[in-house]
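Suppose a colleague, Dr. K., hands you the sequence of a protein chain of 104 amino acids and asks what its three-dimensional shape might be. Before reaching for any lab equipment, you can write down a predicted structure in token form. Begin with the sequence itself:
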Amino acid sequence: MAKEIVKNAAAQMVEKGLEQFFPNLMNRLDELQHEILELRREMHLGFDRTKEVINEVGLRLNTVATRMDTFSEFIHRDSVKVDTYLERLVRVEEALKSRKRRAS
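The predicted structure, expressed as tokens, is then:
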């Protein structure tokens, strides 16, 4: 009989202790869940921002590549023109040299 009374008293003490501890535990769990949700939102916002930056960089790289291709084409055209002008200049110089030779 004494064992049962001690057992019941101990069970009631544990139960009261858990009743006092349990609300605090539930409040802390709710706080942790809220913090986790906030971290997830921030993480998703960070991913979205990173994705936007990556897309913007991709567009800018494409624009730069297009401009470089255009610039390369212009340089090639100018190079061909310069080559043509140099060939003409060499012909003119050769013609002048041959005239000088004939004149002397």
